[in-house]
Amino acid sequence: MIKKFIDKLLGKPAAATGKKASPLGKRVEIPADVHGIDPDLLDERAVKVVKTLTDAGFEAYIVGGAVRDLLLGVRPKDFDVATNATPQQVKGLFRRAFIIGRRFEIVHVVYGRGREHEVIEVSTFRALPTAATETVAGNEKTSKSELQGKAHAVDASGRVLRDNVWGPQVEDAARRDFTVNAMYYDPQRRLVVDYHGGLADAKSKLLRMIGDPETRYREDPVRIIRAVRFAAKLGFTLEPSTLAPVKASAALLANVPASRLFDEMIKLLQTGHSLASIAQLKKLGLGRGVFAVLDAMLTETGDLPDGVRGKFVTQAFEDTDRRVKEGRGVSPSFMLACMLWHEVLDRWTKIRNGGEPPVPALAQAIDAVFDARIGDISGRGKLAADMREIWMMQTRFERRTGSGVFSLIEQPRYRAGFDFLRLRADAGEIDPALADWWEDFALGSDDDRQALLADARASQQKQPRVVRAPRPSAEAEAPADDEADTVVDAPAKKRRRRRRKPGGGGEGAGAPAPAAE
Fold first, then answer.
1. In which band, very low, low, confident or very high, does the pLDDT at 515 lie, cut at 50, 70 and 90?
2. Which has the closest alpha carbon to 233: 311, 190, 187, 180?
3. Residue 82 CB contacts under 8 Å (≥ 6 apart), including other chains
4. pLDDT digits (tens, 9 = 90+) for 205-254
């Protein structure tokens, strides 16, 4: 009897009794002494949102991945709230709240301003699909008129295009993807509400789909990518029936809007487990053909390449993962610039070999790579501007004379450009002395900088030059062909001792800031 009670609290399935379990699951309330969530890990603003809603007479809970992370003893990066209040009712309770989204209508409650602002995402409990769900022939773009006014609609493959039908919490839990993401936490009563055994799966590190996995992947193919991300981030194993349809369902990702798929790729690679995510993609048979950006970087077998190119992107991912784990910001533009750099380099070389001057050739190569790998996605303009600046800066680093060096270190993106240069040097793509010179210049005093510029000018003047041998007299013996010219090389420049090594790469992390003038 006691064992049955404990199993119930932990969400373990009951022994077979001949009765079919409800597809909706069964509500189990788990007290604090069983779930063990540390209240100190909670976000006070998320708790405030819950309290505001409950004080107004609504149900409200912290939900989803935040509850999963809390159960694992990890402070969540984001806190979401679920409630039975409609989006309009939620919006009316908060001073700064905005209803967003067409596919899933949700409310963003905003606290603070500028870079320090925080968004608590509030969703309304949703109902399960019914037989009355409407099917449209096209997609989000081609069937806008048909979707107008519809609360729930799917395309021909079963992918959900609209899902704004409200329902009870038990149905909201059943329509979530994985059991570990379908738990609700009441921070005031310190209760976890679990309908599908999510607590037991979290403790077993098991990723289990709610409902029929094949159907759930058809409803939203992005769940495949989410499965990869959670497996890599949390070290979870996909439950066999959840894993089985993954590879066959991957073709459905072609129907997902490019912008949404691109955003999912960024999430996958910026959770602090980028290399593990790439390995997980290969393990599930998704190493190629899912993300065009990854296809540009990986080999035909879905692996990172050998040699300098593989070392370069590996170091970039390691630095990104380290920054995430240290709680520092990461920039998708820097990471993408690293991922696509060698395709840009290949195209640049080809265009230059065709007779185009270096700078216009690089601009053409960048445009071609963006068209091939990024496409027409939301936010492309900002990404393109940042990445282009990082790449174009690499040609400017080669020139270490004149006033251009001073204007370069004053560029807003200089730190990112230098980090990129340092990665290239550390990977063996370029001479480390070039990165050392720029590090010394950025950190140096006015006198140091003038000395460095003088050294750079002298180095350029001492390039190898050909000295003609004197014309022999009529009596002198004619020199052999290989002795007719003597090449006199300038002595090699002594490498400067580095002042200090900047921190890891990625969006200017640890790059030297220009010295105060």
1. very low
2. 180
3. 60, 61, 63, 64, 122, 123, 124, 125, 169, 172, 184
4. 999 999 999 999 998 999 999 999 999 999 999 999 999 999 999 999 98
Per-residue pLDDT tens over the stretch 409-422: 998 889 999 999 99
Question: Is residue 448 annotated as part of the catalytic site, yes or no?
Answer: no
The rounded radius of gyration (Å) of the Cα atoms in the chain is 29
Query: Taking the mean position of all CA atoms in its chain, how far away is CA 284?
Result: 19
Mean per-residue pLDDT over the chain, rounded: 82
Residue type, 473: S
Return the higher-pLDDT residue of 303 and 104. 303
The whole-number pLDDT of residue 322 equals 93
In angstroms, the CA 210 to CA 27 distance is 15
Burial class (CB in 10 A: 0-12, 13-18, 19+), 505: buried
Which candidate in 43, 69, 163, 177 is catalytic?
A: 177
Residue 187, number of CB atoms within 10 A of its CB: 22
Q: Are strands 152-154 and 134-135 parallel, antiparallel or unpaired?
A: parallel
What 3-state DSSP class applies to 370?
helix
- Which of 80, 172, 220, 436 does the annotation list as catalytic? 80
Cα–chain center distance at 428: 26
Torsion of CA 73, 77, 83, 88, to 10 degrees: 170
Task: Give catalytic status of residue 172 as yes or no.
Answer: no
Q: What is the mean pLDDT of residues 447-476?
A: 66
**Distance separating alpha carbons of residues 242 and 11, to the nearest angstrom:** 19
Q: What is the Cα 469 distance to its own chain's centre?
A: 61
Q: Is 306 a catalytic residue?
A: no
Q: In which region does residue 327 sit, left (phi positive, over 0), alpha (psi from -120 to 50) or beta (all else)?
A: left
Question: Distance between CA atoms of 134 and 151, rounded to whole angstroms?
Answer: 9
CA triplet 48, 46, 268: central angle to 5 degrees?
170
Give the three-state DSSP class for 160: strand
Contacts 24+ apart (CB under 8 A), 258-266: 258/375, 258/376, 258/377, 259/377, 259/378, 259/379, 260/222, 261/222, 261/225, 261/291, 262/291, 262/293, 262/374, 262/377, 264/222, 264/225, 264/226, 264/229, 265/225, 265/291, 265/293, 265/294, 266/332, 266/335
Residue position matching structure tokens 């193919």: 221
Residue located via tokens 């089985």: 244
184 three-state secondary structure:
strand
How far apart, in whole angstroms, are the C-alpha atoms of residue 7 and residue 377? Answer: 47
Q: What is the distance of C-alpha 99 from the center of its chain?
A: 25
pTM: 0.73
Q: Is the pLDDT reported for residue 10 higher than 90?
A: no
